[in-house]
Each structure stands twice: as structure tokens, then as C-alpha cells.
Specification:
Distance between the termini: 75 Å
Largest sheet: 7 strands, mixed
Strand order of the largest sheet: 1-7-4-3-2-5-6
Number of strands: 7
Structural class: alpha/beta
Order of helices and strands: HHEEEEHEHEHEHHH
Strand content: 15-25%
């Protein structure tokens, strides 16, 4: 027996007027809107972040050099994942602009992928990585540090971290680039079970997002090249900024 799935949106239903669509939209819980209006399969009441995707997603943007950046890292043999955030301090918006997602690779391979995005950034890592690795008993954090990563142990308070991320999403203080496809895939299935516990499955980038918001952005910095350019500009203008005039 063969099966197939047909996905239909409100625009495919001619009898719904714009006014009817607006009334329906306002009456539907946020986490169900994409499912009911676009036919996109999403989670029900178990969704941890009941936020419409279009409110947090953004097209890739050019990151200004003066926005401080940091990343967060969740390590494991099956999956090692990282995300990078740039902080627009004026608007207090953290932009997640890049991701790394790979598995069954030695730490050296992950380090290459991380450093390729800027070896000057500080990363917030899962504090559980301070335990012994399954390979030879060495600490994974120590291994990564010896390979050149600047790492701090992240605050891994789960519920407080989820709340901090959700609050940023709700007020527009967290944006995610549309090309972060692995992040979006995890976001769509990030949920609680019937007992209200977080389902620990395919959530590496969701964990990394918590680390980034709770810890990583406190260590965010601009590239050394940008700092050197600023210092040189100050010398040329005798301490006056060409932007502000003082």
C-alpha cells in the first residue's frame, strides 16, 4: 500500500477571506499557527519555545566588525555542535549567524571547523565536558584547550537557560540566520515529555544556544584586527573618534 502527504496552506483554500484568515490567526495559539495556516508539522503543547519561526528567523546579514562575537559548544562522539553569535549591543539583539554540526570525528577535526570561523573568539562549552573522555580518560575541555580553543565553562542551569533564551526570542532579542538549518531542525522538535521534562534527543544546538546566552555573550569580543584599527584611528585623530567627534 502506497502513501503520500499533501501539504496545503490557507492560500490554497479559496473560500477563506482575508478577514476570516485574520480572525482565525488571532484565535490560534502561537505554537500552532504554522501547522494550521501552512500545513507545516510542528509540536503541540509540548514545544519548549512556542514562538513562530518567522519572528526569530532572518536572512543572512553582514555582521559589522564592531559587533562582539562569541560561540558555544556542545561536544560528544555522536554529535559535536557549535553556534556563533554576534551582539548588536545598541539594540541588544544577539544574531546567531553560523553553526557547526558533525559527528564521529576526533577533536582535531572539530577544532579545525571551529577555528575556521575565527580563532580569536571565546567559546562557552558544556561543563560536563570536564569529565573524562571515553578515549583515554583525559578531560575533553583540556584536549580542546591544548589544541588552541579559548574556552570557558558554561552555566548549564537548564530551566533558567531556557527562560533566558525564550525571553530574548519573545522580545525580538534573538535572531537566527535562515541558513542555520540544523539549528532550525532542532528548534522544531525541541519539546517536553508528558512529565514536563526536556526530551534529551537531537538537542545539541539547543543546549549550545543556552550556553551562548547564559555565558558566551559575556565573553564576546571584536576581532583583534578591529581593535588595532580603532587604536590606530585614535592615534591619528589625537584621541577623537571620526564617528562621534569626541
Amino acid at each position: 500500500m502506497s502513501r503520500f502527504c499533501v501539504q496545503a496552506t490557507w492560500d490554497d483554500v479559496p473560500h477563506l477571506t482575508d478577514e476570516a484568515k485574520k480572525d482565525l490567526w488571532n484565535s490560534i495559539p502561537i505554537h500552532q499557527r504554522d501547522a494550521r495556516s501552512k500545513g507545516v508539522p510542528v509540536l503541540g503543547s509540548g514545544a519548549i519555545y512556542p514562538i513562530a519561526e518567522e519572528t526569530i528567523l532572518e536572512d543572512p546579514i553582514e555582521i559589522p566588525s564592531y559587533w562582539p562575537r562569541a560561540y558555544a559548544l556542545d561536544v560528544g562522539w555522536n554529535t559535536t555542535a557549535a553556534i556563533w553569535g554576534a551582539w548588536d549591543k545598541e539594540a541588544d539583539v544577539v544574531h546567531i549567524y553560523s553553526e557547526y554540526y558533525a559527528g564521529h570525528m576526533p577533536p582535531a577535526v572539530h577544532v579545525m571547523g571551529i577555528q575556521a570561523r575565527g580563532d580569536w573568539m571565546v567559546g562557552a562549552i558544556d561543563p560536563g565536558s570536564s569529565g573524562s573522555s571515553q578515549v583515554d580518560g583525559r578531560s575533553l575541555i583540556d584536549e580542546y584547550r591544548k589544541m588552541g580553543l579559548a574556552l570557558v565553562e558554561a552555566d548549564n542551569t537548564v530551566e533558567a537557560g531556557i527562560l533566558a533564551v525564550f525571553q530574548r526570542m519573545a522580545r525580538g532579542g534573538l535572531k537566527v540566520s535562515t541558513h542555520c538549518r540544523s539549528w532550525l531542525s532542532e528548534f522544531r522538535i525541541y519539546r517536553r515529555d508528558m512529565r514536563g521534562h526536556v526530551v534529551k534527543n537531537n538537542d545539541h544546538l539547543m543546549d549550545a544556544t543556552r550556553y551562548l546566552i547564559m555565558t558566551g555573550m559575556r565573553y564576546a569580543r571584536v576581532s583583534p584586527e578591529t581593535e588595532e584599527e580603532r587604536e590606530y584611528e585614535m592615534e591619528l585623530t589625537h584621541g577623537r573618534s571620526q564617528v562621534t567627534g569626541y
